[in-house]
Design goal:
Helix content of chain A: 25-40%
Structural class of chain A: mainly alpha
Largest sheet of chain A: 2 strands, antiparallel
Distance between the termini of chain A: 53 Å
Number of helices of chain A: 14
Oligomer: homodimer
Order of helices and strands of chain A: HHHHHHHHHHEHHEHH
Chain lengths: 348, 348
């Protein structure tokens, strides 16, 4: 089976079996640690170096954007919808949250990155994002800062500042950006009063109407990376599943053809990485183009465009109550001190 | 005497008396606490609220810029020269550091703000900076966030979210952004080996050739605010003092007429707020237009344009060694968690 067939089979399977009892077998609390690539183990020094790079605007061509500019760690790890205007650029896709991204199998709305390491490299060179041109520009810029050279040598040994190690350091920091212990997590681990009665009804509804067919797994975003994962091109789904609703035009949902724009494969038209739902109440606006500001409206749209389910206001409110229970505990992050070259700036 | 006359008299006075022995009487370590307005005492809760606002991009019209975007607390508290391109805008003046700004008498390159509170208001509305239009827009935006409403009420009582209180909270956070205990501070407090022999020669030279005539006081930026301060329009000086050098054109130093652009008073042509020198090694590029990338070059230019002193490479290196000794100890800053409205963004 190809990926789309796997996906379709999963959908059918989940819809057939979607009952609350079943759901409790498949629902998962956030694991203590994300899976880490064998060649990039997490160390505290590497994570600290990665944090500096994450907050360093010198990683963008015009020195105005750091990773944190669009993945704001003081907020939901996203851009609050502002990325479309950052640095005067018009981005056509919304910046998803970096929190718990370590639990995603593939990354980017079109699933083009197979790992956080790949995603970092992709964004550094993407003309719409950090726009650094070629890898060598990034390496030279970072290597020109004595404080970075020293740290890379300490963390990576003689290989020091190179393209792979830059992405490894940032990815390592990102693997520390997890938000465990949400009310939902506490609930499925046995603390019955951790979520409200409305949220419980919302969880049942979420399961019964079939949301779980795509939004399953640790992040409610399909399978998480792991030794058993072999998803080929990754996990993606149709959105809108049913075209022709009033939302297509209202929110400009079908102009961007998603993965098709990358592959030009007709089977990939309107196929999108299933976004995670953890901390979804903090990551408005919604959908690939960030066109929908309200979570209530987003749930209503999803019911109609994906499942032909015209949910009542009360049903939507209950599902939203469940989704709000997915807000986890954010890590305390000390602002790094960026290494600087005394008496000069790299910016000029 | 008007301010300019005061300034000229001070210059003469300082030049006449400029000797190392005299310098040690006037040189000051950073005081433990900055002077605080009677109506805005520092409290930890107010500073925490101000920190959230400082890091919140919702304070800008297009939701892309926070105070921290141009006054990067992970670096020198400045913009590394990038502000001219932030948010796609072309700013004509460089963003000075916010660290130790609490020890400046007036603020902004043209001295238009009499306090941090005024400066905050100015920047929030400045079309070239946060561009929020009118005060009411800021108040409404902040007041629409439940977590802000609660905190303002806790900190300010019933008056809660209003224009004055927003500026007071941010100014209070800024008063915590001090960098004490630089090698220079340790040195003048008696620790003789805190700075190098070259830095000591540089300090003597800095005093002898007359740099102290403008760069005196706690921040080497003229008088600090205090009960005895009555500077009227504030402390500013001519730059370039001597026009006609090769630098005028090379670094476009005389196109911007400084305070004159604000007052249209001919006596204010090329008059500028004397910038502070603390952490100067971390705040390249230099001068009001950020046109000079290197501290070495900046010192050379200052010698020629201000004092007709054509310093040798060694003299410049010694002054730079002294200036590098002004880098203080930066506070540890925990990234705030910004209050959010669940399931919606203010950005749309």
């Amino acid at each position: 089976m190809n990926t789309r067939q796997v996906s379709a089979a999963l959908t059918l399977f989940c819809l057939l079996l979607a009952t609350p009892a079943w759901a409790f077998d498949i629902l998962q609390a956030l694991p203590k640690e994300p899976i880490t690539p064998a060649d990039n183990p997490v160390t505290s020094e590497k994570a600290e170096l990665g944090k500096q790079l994450f907050f360093d605007p010198r990683l963008s061509a015009d020195n105005t954007l750091s990773c944190n500019s669009c993945h704001n760690l003081a907020a939901g790890g996203d851009d609050d919808g502002a990325a479309t205007r950052l640095s005067g650029k018009k981005l056509h896709r919304s910046a998803p949250t970096v929190f718990n991204a370590a639990y995603m199998s593939r990354l980017n709305w079109d699933t083009r990155a197979a790992s956080l390491e790949e995603q970092v490299k992709d964004h550094l060179l993407d003309p719409q994002v950090m726009a650094m041109g070629v890898a060598e520009n990034v390496v030279q810029k970072i290597a020109s800062v004595p404080g970075y050279r020293q740290q890379f040598k300490k963390v990576f040994g003689e290989s020091a500042v190179n393209w792979d190690n830059i992405s490894k350091a940032i990815a390592t920091f990102e693997r520390t950006l997890t938000t465990p212990n949400s009310p939902f997590d506490q609930f499925i681990q046995g603390k019955d009063n951790a979520i409200s009665a409305a949220a419980k009804r919302g969880l049942n509804l979420f399961t019964e109407i079939g949301c779980l067919s795509c939004h399953f797994g640790v992040n409610f975003a399909g399978p998480a990376p792991g030794p058993a994962l072999n998803m080929g091109d990754g996990f993606y789904e149709l959105f809108p599943n049913f075209v022709g609703t009033r939302y297509d035009e209202k929110y400009d949902l079908i102009a961007d053809l998603g993965r098709y724009a990358l592959t030009l494969d007709n089977g990939h038209k309107r196929m999108w990485r299933v976004p995670q739902l953890r901390n979804i109440a903090l990551t408005a606006p919604y959908f690939h183009n960030g066109s929908v500001n309200s979570l209530v409206e987003a749930v209503k749209i999803m019911g109609i465009t994906q499942l032909k389910a015209d949910l009542s206001d009360q049903e939507i409110a209950e599902i939203v109550a469940f989704l709000e229970s997915l807000t986890g505990q954010f890590p305390t992050i000390t602002l790094p001190r960026l290494p600087e070259t005394l008496g000069v700036t790299l910016v000029k």
